[in-house]
Write the structure tokens for this entry.
Amino acid sequence: MFTWPEATLMRLLAAAGIFLVAAVYLRGWRRLPRPALPPGPGRATDPASTRALLLCLGGLALLAVAFISPLGYLATQYFSARIVQHMLVVASVPSLLMFANPAPALVYGLPARAREATLAALRRPADAASGRLRRALHWATAPGVTLLAFLSVCWFWYDPAIHNATLRHGWLHAVELLSLFGVGLLNWWHITAAWPQTHAAMHPLVRIVYAFVSIWPVKLVGLVLLFFPDMGYAYPAGFQLSGLDINDTNFGAMIAWIVSGLAYAVAAVALARQWLGSEADKPALPESAWATDESMNVPGLKR
């Protein structure tokens, strides 16, 4: 009796999932009104725009690279390839998807009954039972909780015993990637302020700090491995760069330390630029609002 190898089955499931999401997104993107939602603070673009389409499809293409391409196999053989895979599912793919603000298009791409049920659930006032669930979800997706979950999940999978278990069991490797992708999406959801916004919008400066803190989980792993390379990761293959004292672990650590925070740094700079631009566009206060005798007094000095 023919049975699919575990790795092949995982890749087929990943390909089917990515294709399904892309089909639903394209269907919904074509149906969205133009413009769909007014751009808000921190939102990259209108979800019905061509830019949003390109960002989302680019993110799904990179997700296919991480899950389906030969990188998926190499990540089970080489530590440096695993680092690249983690960087894709934690930073690159979620950032592209969340900057595309894809939720409106995904909702519009659902069948009519499912779409109406989803929109009704978002608009429905909470009763006693659903109120408890909504409060639990609201707490679980709060910025502080999701940031803590992001840091914890990223570091959890680099524990040597757990990391080696993902090399022995393909299903555990899949769980690892899905959990990293999930917390990455939640993390970028807050950074980009993508729809639906179920929490009060964070001040732009807070989002900049949030993005800066998110740089460090994988980056610190690289720093630790640069100083302590013998962590006991049992990869079946490795390499040594000719003429250099750099092996697979050192190379992966260098990638993690140097490159892993690039997407967050770019996002922080973009948010800072957007915030400064919005501050510069604010109308100046009329002279009558500030050129008064009271406002011109030195603090503490009374006439």
User: Anything to note?
Assistant: The mean pLDDT is 87. Residues 6-122+139-281 form one domain. DSSP finds 16 helices and no strands in the chain.
